[in-house]
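stuck on this:

***
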Amino acid sequence: MITVEMDEEVTKIVVLDESDLYDDIDAIIHSDDSVLLSQYNTESDDIDIIYISFKQLNDLLLAMDLPVGAYHTRVQDK
């Protein structure tokens, strides 16, 4: 299950694990194309945070369908 909220500067997406094996993931996409991913860590009783670019997020999603190898990706003009 996911929820999506938008305002002028950010899009907030919450990804919920319906099996309850993992804690929710919050993804905040900023207008400057930076992405903040956060998830509660039960072992450290703290929030784990990762800052990445939107391109890195797209590359991660693209890589899920690629075979083993090294790849260069480019953003195509619209």
